[in-house]
Recover the amino acids of this structure.
């Protein structure tokens, strides 16, 4: 087989330790995995004596040859030479790439493990055939890994090598629950970065009760986009003008009114009652279910999930992750509100965990929360950028490009709330200048906006940008209308009036009375 023709889609790395292999025969497991569709095999054994290594490698090579799949040896160039297999895989502490190439010749396949920009650069310049990028997620299989880079770190490396003719797989903690997501999420949209060629796994196959079935399942997952990818915001949807989006608002509001979608809130203790009433007013069916085990069933009901981190606890975080997985698997939208994200170390870590554990369709927060989701965002914040200061166009642009980059990286919609609200899916940054000061004087109004947005994306999932814009306009204009009422004397009387006006505007929209939309101040950053 020519090395250019190697398929890296499902790359099996073996492990002979009892914790993973158990009492199974390594050759039987590899044979089963090949029947299941594994496309490349690396024999990795850090403990056996050289004689045993060579003997096992020979048996494995006979098997991989029957399946026309390359066999690579981890680290041991001598073993690869002794059995005449297709190549080797070298880590950063192993023999260097140019020596390995000299020993093995130009036709051998040589892969290199990389975890940062510098290692990547050296491996590409040195003529590696493929990169094993990791460690993506922490894994008990290899505990002494250098760094956990997450999907963000993986994407960074793929952006760096956009133009290199090199193949790539990722490694570390990859299994059936995340393979498809990692393949899709690590690729920067718009052809800016490279897409992974595949995933490398150890335990997901070597420790599986049925390695053939596990391989078959993984290969299918690697080759098919995840459920949530189907409804990502398209380039055409992003190219619309504010007027185009405004024209869709009635349709979105009516869709919620007609469908009464489920708004599943995992939200904080302070706002549960308020959020449930807001959901009802905008036309959704709220459920305030904080127990993650329920999420699988709830995700099947055609609704959307709100993860609101307002009163995060370790148990709460576990529940969020279960629900996130369930909604991602069902292909139903998730709105994440990283409340107080920058405020404490616990919240910073929880935000990172949530963002790294699944796909978030809409990331919504205030300026400091959103900036703390961006690498380097804290510095933007510390430099005192203030989008609400009048006439501060430079700051608006800075914030606009920061959230645009965040949306590109996450392939989602980002909403940054404030005096002006900003919305982007990675291209145009739309702005909403409606609302009322009372919203800032009542607890939970930010959280309830998340609930409102969840109702809109649940009812209108194929156009999440329009859905989010509709949610923001309905919410902030209802606040204006409520605040102007004669019976509203301050923040206390504002709350029931606001709930009424959310209901009234929705009902008016359903009847075709769209007068309220004349107040809309929807724009786009130049
Ligand atoms: N190399 P599992 S992580 C062999 O980061 C190996 O370089 C890694 O095992 C790296 O698929 C790893 O069971 C083990 O998580 C991956």
């Amino acid at each position: 087989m020519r090395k250019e023709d190697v398929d890296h889609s499902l790359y099996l790395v073996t492990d002979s330790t009892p914790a993973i292999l158990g009492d199974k025969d390594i050759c039987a497991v590899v044979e089963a995995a090949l029947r299941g569709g594994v496309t490349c095999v690396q024999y990795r054994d850090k403990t056996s004596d050289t004689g045993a290594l060579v003997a096992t490698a020979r048996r494995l090579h006979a098997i991989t040859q029957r399946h026309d799949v390359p066999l690579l040896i981890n680290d041991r160039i001598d073993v690869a030479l002794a059995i005449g297999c297709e190549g080797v895989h070298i880590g950063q502490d192993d023999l260097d790439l140019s020596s390995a190439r000299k020993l093995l010749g130009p036709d051998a396949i040589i892969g290199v493990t990389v975890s940062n920009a510098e290692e990547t650069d050296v491996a590409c310049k040195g003529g590696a055939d493929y990169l094993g990028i990791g460690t993506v997620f922490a894994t008990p299989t290899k505990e002494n890994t250098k760094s956990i880079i997450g999907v963000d770190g993986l994407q960074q490396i793929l952006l760096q090598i956009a133009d290199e003719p090199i193949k790539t797989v990722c490694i570390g903690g990859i299994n059936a629950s995340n393979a498809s997501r990692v393949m899709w999420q690590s690729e920067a949209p718009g052809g800016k970065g490279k897409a992974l060629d595949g995933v490398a796994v150890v335990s997901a196959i070597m420790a599986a009760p049925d390695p053939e079935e596990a391989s078959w399942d993984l290969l299918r997952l690697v080759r098919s986009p995840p459920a949530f990818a189907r409804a990502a915001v398209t380039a055409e949807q992003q190219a619309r003008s504010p007027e185009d989006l405004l024209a869709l608002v009635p349709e979105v509001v009516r869709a919620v009114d007609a469908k009464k979608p489920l708004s599943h809130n995992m939200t904080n203790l302070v706002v549960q009652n308020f959020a449930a009433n807001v959901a009802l007013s905008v036309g959704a069916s709220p459920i305030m279910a904080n127990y993650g085990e329920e999420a699988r069933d709830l995700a099947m009901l055609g609704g959307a999930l709100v993860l609101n981190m307002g009163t995060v606890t370790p148990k709460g975080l576990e529940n969020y992750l279960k629900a996130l997985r369930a909604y991602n698997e069902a292909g139903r939208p998730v709105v994440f509100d990283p409340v107080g994200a920058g405020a404490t170390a616990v919240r910073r870590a929880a935000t990172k965990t949530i963002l790294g554990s699944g796909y978030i369709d809409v990331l919504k927060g205030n300026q400091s929360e959103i900036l703390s989701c961006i690498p380097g965002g804290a510095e933007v914040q510390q430099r005192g950028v203030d989008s609400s200061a009048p006439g501060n166009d430079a700051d608006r642009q800075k914030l606009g490009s920061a959230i645009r980059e965040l949306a590109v990286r996450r392939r989602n919609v980002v909403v940054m709330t404030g005096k002006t609200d900003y919305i982007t899916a990675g291209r145009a940054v739309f702005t909403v200048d409606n609302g009322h000061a009372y919203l800032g004087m009542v607890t939970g109004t930010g959280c309830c906006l998340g609930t409102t947005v969840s109702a809109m994306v649940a009812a209108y999932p194929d156009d999440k940008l329009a859905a989010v814009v509709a949610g923001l306009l309905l919410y902030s204009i209802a606040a204006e209308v409520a605040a102007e009422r004669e019976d509203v004397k301050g923040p206390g009387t504002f709350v029931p009036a606001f709930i009424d006006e959310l209901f009234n505007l929705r009902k008016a929209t359903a009847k075709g009375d769209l007068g309220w939309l004349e107040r809309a101040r929807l724009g786009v950053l130049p």
User: Anything to note?
Assistant: The radius of gyration is 26 Å.
